[in-house]
Amino acid sequence: DSTNKPIKEEFSITLKNAVTKANNQLFVNPLLLDKYEENPFKVENRLYPVDFTTSKEQVQVYNLEIPTGYSVEKLPENIKMTLPENSGSFLMQSSVTENNVQVLFKLLINKPVFYQQEYPGLRTFFDELVKKQSEKIIIKKDNQL
Length: 145
What we know:
The chain is mainly beta.
């Protein structure tokens, strides 16, 4: 409705076959969409700036209902990582309430251009981001008597 406000997308999805099962455990990656599968900054040194064109904010909230007879064995560890001068950050927080797991992921790129001297930090930041986005929730089947 306004060209002065940020674009916001909100939707709910249902995915089939998004869980890996092994023995009595289920492995679920909470970040299924719009994630980095690999670091986009592969070279060790860069001779020109990284231009993101604009600032960026990405927020994902993932809710998982734990099936009856299962409990949470492991969640992704909470983390907040910030680039120098608050030029970027990412946050991942996981919590369990009753039979529900919620994971919040937030990525901020606060400035559009990163210069050559900032590249090593940016590269390390994205290495950690990729690792974090690949962590899984592990739920296990409760022992049956």
